[in-house]
Amino acid sequence: MDMNKTPELDFIPFRFPGVPRVRCAFQIRRAATAADPDADNIALSGGTRERAVANRRALGPALGLSRWAEMHQVHGSEMCFEPPITEPEHEPILQVDGLATTQSGFGLVVKSADCQPIFLADSEGRHLAALHVGWRGNQANFPGSAVREFCARYALNARDLYAVRGPSLGRGAAEFKDAPTDWGPDFMPWFTRSTGMLDLWGITCHQLTQAGLSGDRIYSLDCCTFTLADRFFSFRAGAPGRQASVGWLADE
Question: Exposed site from 62, 72, 120, 233, fewest CB < 10 Å?
Answer without folding.
Answer: 72
